[in-house]
Write a structure and sequence with these properties.
The chain is an alpha/beta fold. The chain has 13 helices and eight strands.
Length: 294
């Protein structure tokens, strides 16, 4: 798969996280230990599985995998991410599902100035003008802009886990498909997506500061504070239902099946873990014992 498409996929989850919050106390309903790594036990599981909260792309200098995380990964037999990141058909699936519905294009949604600014970014970063991506959803296009805001070399938890799984000859699977992710994104109106894209284009310093704070909270492993910060930066827009909560609920039966099949190392965006509709609370509600691995 083309490295540029990988970059788009890495950042898709990060973009969804920026839209994930709404101003509601529900996000703080489940408080727990500060940890990114959680052990899943009980019910019908003979051996534990684990779930790691990730940040999909961050500067290389901020990337870390603790020995505890590595040991948890080594004790499992398969890796399950939000998407099956080693699927050879992933690039084609992305191209097939990235487009907006008929008649919607970036040149119609963006001002001429924003369109030209974005075109210059695409030519510099991909070698291809924006015309080739004119039908792509604005939030997906925004991934290229966000990547350009990172001054240093970047790292991806998902791609690191894929590499480690391949080296250990472990199968990599996904909780959802590209189509399901892009359909979730498409529930946000195209004008709203375009507004967000314009804010990124014309507010690079602010976006860098927001993302820097997110990375800081992530490194502290305080997932509740991370989600609260996402909520505070959401501008009161309620995207959490579709982009977090509904996806979390859909994932629980799949997590249960994977974990029952064999001990599994799950890795999803850290924003999916906390809250009363977060993965941790939903697993407990389903009868599992979920404890922080510190």
């Amino acid at each position: 798969m083309n490295q540029r498409l990988y970059s788009l996929l890495w950042l898709l989850g990060t973009i969804l996280v920026f839209f994930a919050g709404c101003k509601t106390s529900e996000t703080a309903a489940v408080k727990s230990e500060n940890s990114l790594l959680w052990k899943i036990e009980g019910k019908n599981l003979k051996t534990p599985s684990y779930v790691l909260g990730t940040i999909h792309l961050l500067p290389q200098k901020d990337f870390f995998l603790s020995e505890t995380m590595k040991l948890a990964l080594a004790s499992t037999q398969q890796v399950v991410l939000e998407l099956d990141m080693d699927d050879p058909a992933m690039g084609m699936n992305m191209l097939q599902n990235a487009s907006m519905s008929e008649g919607n294009t970036l040149d119609k949604l963006l001002s001429e100035g924003d369109y030209q600014q974005l075109d210059a970014i695409f030519r510099k970063s991909t070698g291809v003008g924006l015309e080739a991506f004119n039908k792509w959803q604005p939030m997906l296009v925004a991934s290229v802009v966000m990547q350009q805001m990172m001054d240093n070399q970047t790292a991806s938890y998902e791609m690191t886990l894929v590499r480690m799984a391949q080296e250990a000859q472990k199968e990599v699977k996904g909780l959802e498909s590209i189509q399901e992710q892009t359909e979730a994104m498409a529930t946000i109106s195209y004008p709203q997506q375009a507004k967000y894209l314009s804010e990124i284009l014309n507010g690079a310093d602010k976006q860098k500061a927001i993302f820097g704070k997110m990375v800081e909270l992530y490194k502290s492993q305080n997932i509740n504070a991370l989600l609260d910060y996402i909520v505070a930066q959401s501008g009161g827009i309620d995207f959490s239902t579709v982009l977090l909560n509904e996806r979390n609920h859909k994932w629980i039966p799949k997590i249960a099946l994977f974990a029952a099949e064999k001990p599994t190392f799950f890795a999803v965006g850290a924003g999916h873990l906390p809250g009363k509709d977060g993965v941790l609370a939903l697993l407990r509600k389903a009868g599992y014992r979920v404890t922080a691995v510190l």
